[in-house]
């Protein structure tokens, strides 16, 4: 998809990966609406982007993805300011195994809510222009990360939900593609979550295991995942695809077909 003049929404866009994705979109000539719950860093990121890309290219909306009203209002404000929406990246996420309901509310319900709002605005049947939705899952959406089971569950949920919605969009003729990105560990604020007892909860005693898994898989920089995001957002052939981003590069996941599953269950 050519990005020049397109309008994008990035949740959790004030820092970390979301900020990196927003920067890719801006570099390609898109306008970006950053949705984030932290007002200070949202304003600081908008100011930095205004300096680099010009004052009318970035919008910041205070938005907690667990709030239906704030989320709806932020979409509305984006349409009023930029005249429509073409790309939505549901990226906001946390790790908190103690307050696990909050983790589910942000990582899974927030992605579902953001996807439904995005489809409502993008879908051709509603007068939208079509477009693409990219949901940020994780390697923990493809396999179990034993140090954070609820986080793992939310990311598996994002993968299943996005794949099902991609099929629904295809069958329904929405003109909207839905894909996901599954990175391994990335050097952002989120990475140290499990070093804190209040975040790791009952799994704090497994922090050495976490360290070993991190050593085994390695750690990426934000720019590595931003490069993968760029590849995915530009590729108009993908729907229901998951881009697995690891230290060796990015590859699309080959999900087992129904035949594969039936074949395996006979063995
Ligand atoms: N850092 C990593 O190792 C990996 C991260 N991910 C995923 O990438 C996404 C982004 O994470 P990072 O950039 O690493 O984390 P981060 O902590 O650096 O950034 C997350 C952003 O989301 C915002 N946010 C948190 N709760 C929110 C809410 N309720 N409403 C709106 N915004 C909210 C934060 O204010 C922050 O700006 C998450 O979904 C995470 O699960 C996936 C794989 C690896
Ligand atoms: C501290 C958590 C930080 C970020 C979370 C983020 O989403 C990154 C996740 C990155 C890696 C996920 C790894 C998943 C691993 C698996 O799928 C397992 O199959 C392998 C798990 C353990 C291997 C342990 C062993 O070697 O015995």
TrEMBL record:
Signal peptide: none annotated. It is an enzyme of class 1 (oxidoreductase). The keyword Oxidoreductase applies. One of its GO terms (molecular function) is 15-hydroxyprostaglandin dehydrogenase (NAD+) activity. It catalyses: (15S)-hydroxy-(5Z,8Z,11Z,13E)-eicosatetraenoate + NAD(+) = 15-oxo-(5Z,8Z,11Z,13E)-eicosatetraenoate + NADH + H(+); prostaglandin E2 + NAD(+) = 15-oxoprostaglandin E2 + NADH + H(+); prostaglandin A1 + NAD(+) = 15-oxo-prostaglandin A1 + NADH + H(+); resolvin D2 + NAD(+) = 16-oxoresolvin D2 + NADH + H(+). Keywords: Fatty acid metabolism, Lipid metabolism, Oxidoreductase, Prostaglandin metabolism. Transmembrane segments: none annotated. InterPro entries: NAD(P)-bd_dom_sf (IPR036291), Sc_DH/Rdtase_CS (IPR020904), SDR_fam (IPR002347). One of its GO terms (biological process) is prostaglandin metabolic process. GO terms for cellular component: cytoplasm. It comes from the Eukaryota. The keyword Oxidoreductase applies. Its EC number is 1.1.1.141, 1.1.1.232. Gene3D superfamilies: NAD(P)-binding Rossmann-like Domain. Catalyzes the NAD-dependent dehydrogenation (oxidation) of a broad array of hydroxylated polyunsaturated fatty acids (mainly eicosanoids and docosanoids, including prostaglandins, lipoxins and resolvins), yielding their corresponding keto (oxo) metabolites. Decreases the levels of the pro-proliferative prostaglandins such as prostaglandin E2 (whose activity is increased in cancer because of an increase in the expression of cyclooxygenase 2) and generates oxo-fatty acid products that can profoundly influence cell function by abrogating pro-inflammatory cytokine expression. Belongs to the short-chain dehydrogenases/reductases (SDR) family. This is 15-hydroxyprostaglandin dehydrogenase [NAD(+)]. It comes from Alosa alosa (allis shad). The lineage of its organism: Eukaryota, Metazoa, Chordata, Craniata, Vertebrata.
């Amino acid at each position: 998809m050519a990005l020049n003049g397109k309008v994008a929404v990035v949740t959790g866009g004030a820092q970390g990966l979301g900020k990196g994705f927003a920067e890719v979109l801006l570099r390609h000539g898109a306008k970006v609406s950053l949705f984030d719950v932290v007002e200070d860093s949202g304003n600081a990121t908008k100011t930095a982007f205004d300096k680099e890309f010009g004052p009318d290219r970035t919008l910041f909306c205070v938005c907690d993805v667990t709030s239906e009203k704030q989320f709806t209002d932020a979409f509305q404000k984006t349409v009023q300011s930029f005249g429509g929406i073409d790309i939505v990246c549901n990226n906001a996420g946390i790790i908190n195994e103690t307050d696990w309901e909050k983790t589910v509310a942000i990582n899974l319900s927030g992605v579902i809510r953001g996807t439904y709002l995005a489809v409502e605005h993008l879908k051709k049947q509603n007068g939208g222009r079509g477009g693409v939705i990219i949901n940020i899952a994780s390697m923990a959406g493809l396999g179990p990360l034993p140090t954070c089971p609820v986080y793992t569950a939310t990311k598996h949920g994002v993968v299943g939900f996005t794949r099902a919605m991609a099929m629904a969009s295809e069958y329904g003729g929405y003109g909207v593609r839905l894909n996901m990105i599954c990175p391994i560990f990335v050097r952002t604020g989120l990475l140290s979550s499990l070093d804190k007892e209040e975040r790791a909860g009952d799994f704090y005693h497994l922090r050495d295991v976490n360290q070993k898994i991190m050593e085994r898989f390695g750690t990426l920089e934000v720019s590595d995942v931003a490069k993968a995001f760029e590849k995915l957002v530009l590729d108009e052939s993908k729907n229901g695809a998951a881009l697995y981003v690891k230290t060796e590069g990015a590859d699309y996941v080959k999900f087992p077909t129904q035949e594969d599953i039936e074949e395996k269950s006979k063995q």
